[in-house]
């Protein structure tokens, strides 16, 4: 690989979107755990 080759990283908006989707996935997983706990308590 040459020093003049472009870096193999996605554009900034794509990285921001990936971070947002990761956060949404974590929130969804936490919500599922809380829902299971609430359903188990009842």
- Which structural class best describes the helix and strand composition? mainly alpha
- Strand percentage: under 5%
Helicity range of the residues? over 70%
- Order of secondary-structure elements: H
Write out key terms for the chains shown.
42 residues, 71% helix, mainly alpha, rod-shaped
Topology:
Blueprint: H1 12-41
Can you walk through the features of this model?
The chain is an all-alpha fold. It has one helix at about 10-40. It holds the Pfam family MmpB. Keywords: Membrane, Transmembrane, Transmembrane helix.
What's this model, at a glance?
This protein is mainly α. Helix content is 71%, strand content 0%.
